Amino acid sequence: MGPSLVHDDAVTMRRSRPGRSAATAVLGLWFLVAGSNSSATPPPSAPAAAPAPAAAAVLGQPKTVSTPEGSSATVTLKKVSYVALPNDGLQELAVIDLSLTGTSAVPFHYSESNVVFSYATAASAYTDPDNTNVYGSSPTEDYAPYVPPNPLRVGSVARGKTVEGLVILRMSLKAPYALALIDGATTRLAVWGLTSD
Q1: 68 upstream amide cis, omega within 30 of 0
Q2: What is the rounded distance in angstroms from the CA atom of residue 32 to the CA atom of residue 4?
Q3: Do 19 and 76 share a domain, yes or no?
Q4: Residues 6+ apart with CB under 8 A from 195
């Protein structure tokens, strides 16, 4: 029998048996308090946030990345701008402004198709176990309103050289997501935990 039921019974007994003494009622209340303290369970704690992956990066701060082929670069997510789509209350455009500086003798190859995102959760800024889909850039979007810099298409950057460019992604409104620079199909070189406007 839980504490609330014990309390209800004590109150009922006191009301239905007027001959009971006040001391007995107080004793019943003492057992109620003592019992509730001994059987009390702590409130459930909030789920712990998932740890950030090794590739985690911070908006505006350089992140060194390297590929299995031996090329490396410093990548900086300089800015993300969100642009409303006319007559669309569910999606918007995320205009990604990236810079890449080569740091290895082997040129670092890049492509707009290597800038992707996946939806995340409040518990983890980098993954959503129920939605593992990865979404790519929208190369047919009109970049004219957002240049300079130019779109980040395909190319390579040598040591000491820097390339800067835009990538446009189409995504849901007010959604946490993980923006990633990937190498090939699966390796995330850099990942930023963000939330769309």
Answers
A1: no
A2: 8
A3: no
A4: 174, 175, 176, 177
The secondary structure of residue 43, as a DSSP letter, is P
Rounded Cα distance, 3 and 45, in Å: 22
Give dist(CA 162, CA 175) in Å, integer: 31
- Of 30 and 155, more confident: 155
Residue 6 has pLDDT above 60, yes or no: no
Q: Is the pLDDT confidence value at 27 over 80?
A: no
Residue type, 43: P
User: Is the same domain home to 68 and 25?
Assistant: no
Is the domain of 89 the same as that of 148? yes
Q: In what helix (H) or strand (E) does residue 8 lie, and over which residues does it extend?
A: helix 3-16
In a domain, 56, yes or no: no
Provide the residue range defining the domain that includes 8. 3-39
> Is residue 167 included in any domain, yes or no?
yes
Domain count, the chain: 2
Q: Scan for tokens 């701008």, then name that residue.
A: 81
What's the N-to-C CA distance of the chain in angstroms?
Answer: 50
**Whether residue 30 sits in one domain with residue 118:** no
For 136, the token pair is: 């790519």
- 125 occurs within a structural domain: yes
